[in-house]
Amino acid sequence: MHPAPSVIIFTSLSGLGFGLLIFLGLGLPLPTGITAFIYFALAYVLAVGGLMASTFHLGRPERAIKAFSQWKTSWLSREAWLAVATLVAMAIYGAGLVFYGIALAPLGWLGAFLALATVYATSMIYAQLKTIPRWNTPLTSLLFVILSIAGGALLAVQIPIALALLLGAGIIQVAYWIWGDQALYNSETNMASATGLGDQGSVRAFEPPHTGTNYLLREFVHIVGRKHAAKLRIIALILMILTPVLILSIDVNIILILIAILVHTAGLFVSRWLFFAQAEHVVGLYYGKR
């Protein structure tokens, strides 16, 4: 898949924002006044900023409102509704903390659940696609959710929880890569099934379907060299998991926490770039791409 910056920003930042809202809703931490305002402002900037970035990947961004009309069949539409519900619930909950110093705990729990459901819905936009075998696995949703919660724990300064979640996220990330590298082969999808000519005998590409590029090739076929991908995976793990864990294991202060968050976010962007760039759409088989 073409790793468009808009969807990388969308999935990365919104995951961090909703992850922070999960912890705020659970009362971890439970700030009041200006401190609460800073926490909620950060969560909303990340969550809303990520959601707004996603509209830039649409051919007609002004029609984004129509996504709300397909909630019965579309995970994108469900994500939109869940995101709005989360933001409304947490706005009321946050207002109680900021202006009155009151924590409406049941509302916070509801907001945390909705935030978690929003991240899950985001993951299912990709995990449901059988045409991209690498994504079509429960590991996709598990990875999105644990990275969101781990990032949220960092932003909420819940260090022991963050360390445990980061290590868990690292294990799931590696498992996802290992499984994904064999996903297209294990799906038993090949050029014969892609062209519909399997009943005619052995199928191989004699010439490409056409000499120029097209929308399918631009959007759904993006080839990353194995050596290049391996280096980026190492960089992603070092930045996203290992460095924050090492930093926070040595000492905990505001400077180190900020560094850990920035490094983790940089690694998350690398991981998400790979998530999209290495996703082999089966349409690529029709064009002789693998």
Give the SSE layout.
Layout: H1 5-25, H2 33-54, H3 75-100, H4 105-127, H5 138-155, H6 159-180, H7 183-186, H8 191-195, H9 215-220, H10 226-250, H11 254-277, H12 283-286
| CATH superfamily label | Formate dehydrogenase/DMSO reductase domain
CATH topology: Formate dehydrogenase/DMSO reductase fold
Radius of gyration, taken over Cα atoms and rounded to an integer in Å: 21 Å
Question: Any idea what the shape is?
Answer: globular
CATH architecture: Up-down Bundle
Helices and strands, in N-to-C order?
HHHHHHHHHHHH
Give the rounded overall mean pLDDT: 88
Strand segment tally? 0
Largest sheet: none
What's the number of helices?
A: 12
Amino-to-carboxy terminus distance: 12 Å
Helix content: 55-70%
**Assigned CATH class:** Mainly Alpha
| Poorly predicted runs | none
Percent of residues in β-strands: under 5%
Quickly count the domains: 1
Counting helices, strands and paired strands, the structural category is: mainly alpha
Overview of this structure, please?
- The chain is mainly alpha-helical.
- It has a single domain (5-187, 216-287), classed as Formate dehydrogenase/DMSO reductase domain (Formate dehydrogenase/DMSO reductase fold, Up-down Bundle), CATH 1.20.1630.10.
- Helix content is 69%, strand content 0%.
- The chain has 12 helices and no strands.
- It has helices at 5-25, 33-54, 75-100, 105-127, 138-155, 159-180, 183-186, 191-195, 215-220, 226-250, 254-277, 283-286.
- Helix 5 packs antiparallel against helix 11, helix 6 packs antiparallel against helix 10 and helix 10 runs antiparallel to helix 11.
- It is globular, with a radius of gyration of 21 Å.
- The model has no long low-confidence stretch (mean pLDDT 88).
